[in-house]
Amino acid sequence: xxxxxxxxxxxxxxxxxxxxxxxxxxxxxxxxxxxxxxxxxxxxxxxxxxxxxxxxxxxxxxxxxxxxxxxxxxxxxxxxxxxxxxxxxxxxxxxxxxxxxxxxxxxxxxxxxxxxxxxxxxxxxxxxxxxxxxxxxxxxxxxxxxxxxxxxxxxxxxxxxxxxxxxxxxxxxxxxxxxxxxxxxxxxxxxxxxxxxxxxxxxxxxxxxxxxxxxxxxxxxxxxxxxxxxxxxxxxxxxxxxxxxxxxxxxxxxxxxxxxxxxxxxxxxxxxxxxxxxxxxxxxxxxxxxxx
Length: 292
What we know:
The protein has a single domain, classed as TIM Barrel (Alpha-Beta Barrel). It is 39% helix and 14% strand. It contains 13 helices and 8 strands. The protein has helices at residues 7-13, 28-34, 53-65, 89-94, 96-103, 118-127, 152-158, 162-168, 189-198, 211-217, 231-247, 260-265, 276-285, and strands at 18-23, 41-44, 78-85, 109-113, 181-185, 206-208, 250-255, 270-273. α3 links the parallel β2 and β3. α2 runs parallel beside α3, α7 (152-158) packs across α8 (162-168) and α9 (189-198) packs parallel to α11 (231-247). The radius of gyration is 18 Å and the shape is globular. 46% of the residues are buried.
């Protein structure tokens, strides 16, 4: 089978969950180190770490130079959190340059934190697309706003020509041939109130409820353990997951040794496992073919 550039898409398209690790160390050496990670993809914590695009480029080069993966993919995919919040459409429009700069580093997707309104998410998706792409335009989306130039470096990271890159750098599954994954975090009470509508914006692959920030917004200075959530936080998590499910969107949350199988039974496809053994348990449970 031909491998996609983005391993996450191969897994989810086959009905398999994808497990990730996070990093905020954007160096070539760390990219080289994480090229051998047990995880399926890497989340770049740019929302809290310095916005160091030069460092992210070096990190992506390290990921590439350490490849391919054991599964036969060119490299471990990396998805970057945007430093801006999705407070509203105006805020996202003003900070759309962040999407362009991160995508031009060769990352395989983006995450919008504090996605509070549908307008912010619409602007987020449009900031990630080239203007000639038409899928979804007029059906909840306007034309893409990512401009020409800057595609040579990400094309080199992906192993394609610059001309091929601009066709492939589009959100999946909106575009069946796209290789970008876009995610949104609905992680405060303002986002929660709009989440049933927000998840219906085209172009987003997964949503999450953001345990740390959502719990802080409900009065918890320290993040509760995901294995023993207070009942009202459990209800919030299930509420957001339910809205995602209704909209045909994937969901992302933390899994533990105690609950990974029950989460997979409910269709979870994006998993944060703090322990490699948890991911291994999940992979065996879903009978994923080796090598992973």
